[in-house]
């Protein structure tokens, strides 16, 4: 029986719908393949948002994360990894107030009601948007937002099957890459101070020296050893000793540049890496750290304690110090020479005070 004109139109619409669905499914598959094996959160989020924007012809794609502790750690990791996409931070209360605790995509045709969830530089241009909830550990922790200037692109009640698939893939992918990062962190971070550990230090020095040779950049380091740590432990107990080490680590991190990094070497020993700093600058930084700790006491249970340490500096441009072990040994040797000089000066001052 021949098709009626209306039947022909319906069939054509079905064919076009099937083709469109196939294109979307292919795009989703391609995105999943592209990001499934990425090893860090920054690369995952940067690549994911870029692919979604390109494959689905969107004007904006952005990430919103609530202020729970795990998200705060994720934001720090993204910053350290140099992510191009900076997640928008909102309080958990505000996020739930605006979108509820939904676990399914929301299509929003009046985005101005959700200004708090839109980056300030695009608030006036977004005509409609889709919210894809991010779920980690069975908890809604934020959302991936797809934005467009087209006010009719996303409308409540539209079919959201493929957006649901994308939301699930994004949540699973981010959970997976973040879990792998946490496992790596356990292997490379000191559990007490949160600093990178000796294993990470060895890699960082090797990479720094490689960049130094390739680009003509210098690399310095400070080797730090706490002078009175055993006495602190013996007098005030191990809990105080642990807090003391955390205090030293935190203060060092606060005083250094963004490019510098602090590592816990072993026990009460720390190493500070100083990229693009010559030996004179490294010595100046060591002196600045000493001066800071002299005027910044450590408090334990209401008692004021003075953190004291010795340090030695070394630089990759010095003869024979172009290997990690050699650089560390030189700084360590100078540390103990400085410690010997300080001890001798202290004994001399004590003797002078007694004989007066």
How does this model look, in words?
This protein has 356 residues and is an alpha+beta fold. The chain folds into two domains: 183 residues, GAF domain (Beta-Lactamase, 2-Layer Sandwich), CATH 3.30.450; 147 residues, Alpha-Beta Plaits. Helices cover 53% and strands 19% of the residues. The strands form three sheets. Strands 2-1-5-4-3 form a five-stranded mixed β-sheet. Strand 1, helix 3 and strand 2 form a beta-alpha-beta unit. Helix 2 packs antiparallel against helix 5 and helix 7 packs across helix 8. The chain is elongated.
Q: What distance lies between the first and last C-alpha atoms, to the nearest angstrom?
A: 123 Å
Number-wise, the strands total 11
- Our Rg estimate from Cα atoms comes to 28 Å
CATH superfamily of the largest domain: GAF domain
* CATH fold label of the largest domain: Beta-Lactamase
Share of residues in strands: 15-25%
Low-confidence stretches: none
CATH class of the largest domain: Alpha Beta
> What is the overall silhouette?
elongated
Mean pLDDT: 88
Q: Give the strand line-up of the largest sheet.
A: 2-1-5-4-3
CATH architecture descriptor name of the largest domain: 2-Layer Sandwich
> Helix coverage percent of residues?
40-55%
Structural class comes to alpha+beta
N-to-C order of helices and strands: HHEHEHEEEHHEHHEEHEEEH
Instruction: Tally the structural domains.
Output: 2
């Amino acid at each position: 029986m021949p098709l009626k004109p209306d039947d022909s139109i319906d069939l054509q619409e079905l064919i076009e719908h099937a083709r469109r669905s196939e294109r979307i499914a292919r795009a989703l598959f391609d995105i999943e393949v592209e990001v499934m094996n990425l090893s860090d959160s920054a690369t995952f989020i940067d690549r994911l948002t870029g692919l979604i924007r390109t494959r689905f012809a969107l004007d904006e794609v952005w990430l919103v994360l609530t202020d729970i502790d795990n998200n705060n750690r994720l934001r720090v990791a993204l910053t350290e990894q140099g992510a191009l996409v900076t997640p928008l931070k909102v309080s958990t209360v505000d996020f739930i107030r605006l979108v509820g605790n939904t676990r399914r995509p929301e299509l929003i045709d009046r985005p101005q009601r959700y200004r708090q969830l839109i980056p300030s530089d695009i608030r006036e241009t977004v005509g409609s948007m889709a919210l894809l909830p991010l779920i980690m550990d069975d908890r809604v922790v934020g959302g991936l937002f797809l934005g467009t200037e087209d006010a009719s692109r996303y409308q409540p009640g539209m079919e959201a099957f493929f957006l649901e698939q994308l939301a699930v893939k994004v949540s699973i992918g981010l959970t997976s890459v973040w879990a792998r990062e946490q496992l790596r962190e356990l292997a490379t971070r000191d559990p007490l101070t949160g600093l990178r550990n000796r294993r990470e230090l060895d890699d960082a020095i090797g990479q720094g020296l490689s960049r130094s040779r390739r680009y003509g950049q210098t690399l310095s380091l400070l080797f730090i050893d706490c002078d009175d740590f055993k006495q602190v432990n013996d007098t005030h107990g191990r809990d105080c000793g642990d807090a003391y080490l955390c205090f030293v680590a935190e203060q060092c991190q606060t005083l250094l540049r963004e490019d510098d990094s602090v590592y816990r070497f072993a026990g009460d020993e720390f190493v500070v890496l100083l990229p693009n700093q010559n030996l004179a600058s490294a010595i100046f930084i060591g002196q600045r750290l000493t001066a800071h700790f002299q005027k910044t006491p450590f408090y334990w249970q209401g008692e004021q304690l003075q953190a004291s340490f010795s340090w030695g500096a070394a630089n990759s441009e010095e003869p024979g110090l172009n290997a990690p072990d050699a650089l560390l040994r030189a700084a360590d040797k100078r540390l103990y020479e400085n410690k010997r000089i300080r001890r001798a000066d202290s004994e001399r001052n004590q003797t002078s005070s007694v004989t007066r």
